[in-house]
Write a structure and sequence with these properties.
Two copies of one chain form a homodimer.
Chain A lengths: L5 H13 L6 H11 L3 E3 H9 L7 H14 L2 E6 L2 E6 L7 E5 L5 E4 L2 H13 L3 E12 L6
Parallel strand pairs in A: 4-6
Antiparallel strand pairs in A: 1-3, 2-3, 4-5
Chain A binds a DNA duplex (30 and 30 nucleotides) through helix 2 and helix 4.
Chain lengths: 144, 144
DNA sequence: TTGAAATTGATAAACTGTCTCAAAATGATA
DNA sequence: TATCATTTTGAGACAGTTTATCAATTTCAA
């Protein structure tokens, strides 16, 4: 299981190398747990890992998830009072439809939008690495 | 100045009437200040209003901005660790191109993307109120 | 193997936003 | 306009989430 996510581990190692950071047991452990999720909060991951590693600190989870964001493996999304960490590599990139009333989240992908984004970027001399698109509104149930 | 935003004040009064709420000096004051912004945090509004009204409580700002959300005048968006209250009556929405190297921000608008967003939302039964689109990458200068 | 540098775990602290409650303000009614 | 039930306010306490602190431990280059 530990060598299942070779590519992502490689990305992490490269990031660590570039920034004089070190590979630790915790970082490996958290990476593997994280890559099994689509998105998760630090708190949820803390409780999940507490079963196998009761002494893993919450602060370490936060630090490590933020590290993953720096390395481009995760993306933080602030919603309500919590932060969700999205697994960027797990699937293709997905954007979000968010109901501001019931907090329901629908994920979607739209090639045409992505293409237009590239176009806009190119027109401004930018090369896109990642993006974030969130549509806020009311789902069909809450509109009534 | 106080009678500049007649339409929005009317919306507020209707909401208050419907819910057995009262029109107060603070609610008028905060509404007028809010409508001058495109989006603002409760904290920022607190400091801004403190100059003219040193005894306006932060809790009152929060309560009132949330009231505006209920009335449909504002919309809360979680941004970073803070909540920004968007002025819904402002329409000129702009998106952002952000250089991850030099932090330069370029604003843009793209009608076609907006149209596709509506399409995606409709397909999922959503009615969009606002959205956020951020493209992260390297600007032409930083790419070299 | 050694040792400088980074990391960890535990917890304190910071931050944002909500709750509490006595005092004040509102507005419907007389 | 005076009355008064109801709502609102201000100030601070409080709660939930995330970051900072720091001594002890771990990593990894030499």
């Amino acid at each position: 299981m530990a060598n299942k996510h070779v590519k992502e581990m490689q990305v992490l190692k490269e990031h660590l190398g570039k920034h004089q950071l070190k590979l630790t047991r915790q970082r490996e452990l958290i990476l593997n747990a994280f890559l099994r999720q689509e998105h998760i909060t630090a708190e949820a991951m803390y409780h999940q890992l507490a079963k196998s590693d009761p002494h893993l600190g919450l602060a370490t989870i936060y630090r490590t998830l933020n590290l993953f964001c720096d390395a481009g493996l995760a993306q933080a999304r602030h919603f309500g009072s919590q932060t969700k960490y999205d697994n960027v590599s797990h699937k293709g990139h997905h954007d979000h439809l968010i109901c501001t009333s019931c907090d329901q989240i629908v994920e979607f992908e739209n090639e045409e939008i992505e293409r237009l984004q590239e176009e806009v970027a190119a027109r401004n001399g930018f090369t896109i690495k990642t993006h974030r698109l969130e549509l806020y509104g009311l789902c069909s149930r809450c509109r009534h």
